[in-house]
Design a protein that fits this description.
4 helices; 3 strands; three-stranded antiparallel β-sheet; 123 residues; mainly alpha; Arc Repressor Mutant, subunit A
């Protein structure tokens, strides 16, 4: 079955998002400890609305990264607020992040060479 028009756009966007979820989340929690809502907000904000996760898929990814030992969650309670689980990258996660950044840099370079795709800030 082939996809056309908007369906193809959504399929491509979905595939790119799934393939980059680990990298994006690791990069954010490498900068500071964040809870899930902050991760979702920052992803959408920094991507200018291009990258959005449902909270269910975001938390599924956070739990998977934690199970792999790439991030560590810690419950924090503040007066007058619900307790929240804040996530921070681990040393293993930092190594994975460095490897993924290298892989993505090679992939983006290949897209530029083969398909003429350039980052939006270069157009």
């Amino acid at each position: 079955m082939t996809t056309t028009g908007r369906t193809a756009d959504r399929a491509a966007s979905e595939g790119a998002r799934k393939g980059s979820a680990d990298l994006l989340i690791l990069a954010l929690v490498d900068q500071e400890a964040l809870h899930g809502y902050d991760v979702a907000r920052l992803l959408e904000e920094r991507s200018r609305g291009t990258i959005r996760f449902t909270l269910a898929s975001l938390y599924e990814t956070l739990y998977r990264l934690e199970d792999r030992g790439w991030i560590r969650g810690r419950w924090v309670e503040k007066a007058g607020q619900r307790r929240r689980r804040y996530y921070r990258i681990t040393p293993v996660g930092r190594r994975v992040l460095a490897e993924q950044r290298e892989d993505w840099a090679r992939f983006i370079a290949a897209l530029t060479l083969v398909a003429g795709v350039k980052p939006a800030w270069e157009t």
